[in-house]
Each structure stands twice: as C-alpha cells, then as structure tokens.
C-alpha cells in the first residue's frame, strides 16, 4: 500500500518539490524515505524475533501433528521476512505517482499479484510444503517490487537512494505525517495477515488455500480500483493546495460512481464463474462454497465504493482519524472473524470482513469529507 513514509506522505511532499523543480529536495526525500523505511523494517523484524524466539507455533496456531513444527516455523519466519522486505518498496510506488506515472506502478503491482496468484495455485496443486506456499505467494510481490525499482532508477538515476542524501531535516518533516500513514498501513496489512492464522487455528491448514485462491480471484476488480485511486493522489493534493474544492468534489463523485459501476459489473461476472474457473485451474479440492464467493464479492464492491474517498483524504493529509478507523476495523475484523468462522466457516470470515467494513468505513469517511468542506447534501436555493 502507498502509505507510511514511502507512500502518501512522500507523494505530497515530493509533488511540491517537483512542482518547484527542486531536484535536490526530491533526491533527499527519496533517499531519506528509503533508508528510514529500511531501518523501520529491520527494527520491527529484530523486535519480533526477540519476542517470539523459541515460540512453539504449533501451539499458537492450534495446529495438528500433521503439520511439521519445522515447516510451520519456517513459514512464519518467511512470512515475516518477506512482509518486512516490502516496506522500502512503497517508496518506488510513491515516486511513480508523484511523477504522474501511477500506471507504471499499477502495472508492476498487477503483474506481481498475478504472479502471486499463479504461485499460490501451483504450490497448492503440487501439494508444496507450507514454507514454499508462503514463498510462492509473498515472494512474487518482492520480485515485482525489484522489477519496479529497476525500471524506475534506470530512467531516473538521480533519484537512486544514496546515504549521502539522507537528511535529518527531511526525516523530521516526514516522520509525523508518515508515522500516521504507517499506523494506517500496519492496521490494514495486519488485518489481512491475520486471516490465514484464524483459518489455520479454527479450520486447519487445508482451508487456507481455498480462502486465498477465492480472495485473490474475486479481488481483482478492487486491485484495479485501488490502483486508479492511488494514481489520483498527487492530483488531489495539488488541487487541495490550490483551494479547488469544486474540482475535488466533482472528481471524487465521478471516480466513485465509475468505480462502483465497474466493480459491480466485473465482480458479478467473476463471482458467477469463480467456482468453475477455480475447479479448472486449481482442482476440485480448492473450489469454495457459494457463501464465501457471495460475501467476498459484496466486500469487494463496498470497498471499491469508498476507495477514492480514502485516497482523497490521504492526499489532504487527514491521516490521524483514518489510522484510528483502520485500527477499529482491524480489531472488529479479527474479533468477528474468529466468532463467525467458528460458526459459518470460510463464508463467516468473509462475512466478518464485510460487516466490519460497513460498520466503520462509510460513516467515518463521510464525516471526514464533511470536515474538509466536501458536503454531498443538495444546497438549498434562496
């Protein structure tokens, strides 16, 4: 996601530097963000390793003896390593967006997700071990990130991160805003990282593949909407700085309506063919129940409907409450996920995602938009 020190915080500040044609400031911002995120990733990794070293993960996840303790340990550590390795990659996406080249970041992201989806199907269909399953899914995203970085810095070598361009002053200017973006990112990513562990503990490791394949297939329209919304962040930030409230409101309404219509059509079509497609590609053992398909499709539709509003709020630096709402959403999703999964299986987990999102995000974003002067009520005429 394009949040934290390497995401929207960097996009807004970098956009200003590019508008001022201040190449030195732009290079300092990129290098500072890159090394700061690398340090954060390393620090988080060391802290988690220290706190969990020697933990019996089979007990933590309530895994049966059929799951090798060594394999489970390797899977956990690979998940942690690959997750943290993606931290600095958000800098690359931010630079693309600030240069109004978000389509390039979107292309690499889409390619990485398709590669991840293919890796998941291959790992499950070949009955690969749990560590290889993790590497196949998350390793594809790391490969996509490296490809994006290579394509960016070959074209813009002056922005290649260098320790000599690291600036404490830039770090201070980014850290407050970026820290709040990072909290929002961690709550969002933590929510989705928790889903496989909920499934393993309640339904067993075999159900992880069913949920993962279904989620990735049905979420493809949402990835497109998120990519388009992220590409508008720089434009939203520039318009806000110029006081163009009418343009912001009109663009937000147009983008949201287009996203809702496009997602409704595409996710309905995908949901109708999801079960036979998964049966053909991944095998009958990974075919989901219709409940999981329906609730996941509804979740994708609702999420797509508020994605552009979220990007606009991040662009105008309304971050603190967004992070708080994300935390509430994450806690609700995990709590309801445990209860609903015990009662209704995988469909219950998707239902928990939908209910949590509906309870928090639409109302919260409506309030935030009103706070920045964007009101959708029809004005009364004299």
Low-confidence parts lasting 5 or more residues at pLDDT below 50?
none
Q: Give the proportion of residues in helices.
A: over 70%
Helix/sheet category: mainly alpha
Q: Report the strand count.
A: 0
* Rg from Cα: 21 Å
Distance between the termini: 45 Å
Give the CA-based shape: globular
Give the number of helices.
Answer: 15
Whole-number average pLDDT? 84
Q: What's the main sheet like?
A: none
Q: Spell the H/E element sequence.
A: HHHHHHHHHHHHHHH
Strand content: under 5%
State the assembly state of the protein chains: single chain
Topology (SSEs and partners):
Blueprint: H1 8-19, H2 23-52, H3 57-60, H4 69-85, H5 89-98, H6 102-125, H7 130-155, H8 168-203, H9 206-218, H10 220-231, H11 233-241, H12 245-282, H13 290-315, H14 320-344, H15 346-371
Describe the structure.
The chain is mainly α and 382 residues long. 81% of the residues lie in helices and 0% in strands. α2 runs parallel beside α8 (168-203). The protein starts with 7 loop residues before the first helix and ends in an 11-residue tail after the last helix.
What descriptive keywords fit this protein?
15 helices; 382 residues; mainly alpha
């Amino acid at each position: 996601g394009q949040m934290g020190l390497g995401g929207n915080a960097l996009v807004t500040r970098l956009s200003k530097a590019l508008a001022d044609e201040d190449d030195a400031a732009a290079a300092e911002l990129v290098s500072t963000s890159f090394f700061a995120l690398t340090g954060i990733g390393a620090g988080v990794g060391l802290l988690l390793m220290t706190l969990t070293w020697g933990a019996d993960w089979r007990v933590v996840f309530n895994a049966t003896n059929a799951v090798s303790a060594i394999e489970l340990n390797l899977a956990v550590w690979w998940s942690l390593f690959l997750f943290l390795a993606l931290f600095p990659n958000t800098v690359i996406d931010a630079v693309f967006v600030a240069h109004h080249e978000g389509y390039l970041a979107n292309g690499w992201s889409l390619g990485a997700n398709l590669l991840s989806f293919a890796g998941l199907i291959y790992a499950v269909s070949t009955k690969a071990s749990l560590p290889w399953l993790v590497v196949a899914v998350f390793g594809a995203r790391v490969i996509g990130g490296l490809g994006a970085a290579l394509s960016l810095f070959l074209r813009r070598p002056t922005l290649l991160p260098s320790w000599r361009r690291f600036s404490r002053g830039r770090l201070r200017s980014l850290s407050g805003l970026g820290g709040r973006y990072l909290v929002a990112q961690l709550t969002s990513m933590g929510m989705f990282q928790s889903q496989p562990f909920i499934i393993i503990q309640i339904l067993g490791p075999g159900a992880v593949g069913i949920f993962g394949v279904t989620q990735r297939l049905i979420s493809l329209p949402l990835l497109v909407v998120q990519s388009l919304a992220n590409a508008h962040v720089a434009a939203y930030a520039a318009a806000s700085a110029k006081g163009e409230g009418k343009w912001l409101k009109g663009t937000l309404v147009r983008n949201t309506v287009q996203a809702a219509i496009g997602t409704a059509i595409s996710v309905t079509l995908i949901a109708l063919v999801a079960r036979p497609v998964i049966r053909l590609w991944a095998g009958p053992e990974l075919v989901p129940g219709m409940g999981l398909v329906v609730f996941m499709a509804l979740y994708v539709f609702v999420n797509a409907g508020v994605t552009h509003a979220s990007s606009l709020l991040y662009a105008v630096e309304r971050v603190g409450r967004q992070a708080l709402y994300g935390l509430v959403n994450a806690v609700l999703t995990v709590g309801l996920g445990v209860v609903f999964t015990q009662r209704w299986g995988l469909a219950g987990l998707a239902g928990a995602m939908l209910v949590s999102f509906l309870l928090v995000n639409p109302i919260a974003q409506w309030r935030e938009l009103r706070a920045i002067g964007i009101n959708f009520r029809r004005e009364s005429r004299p």
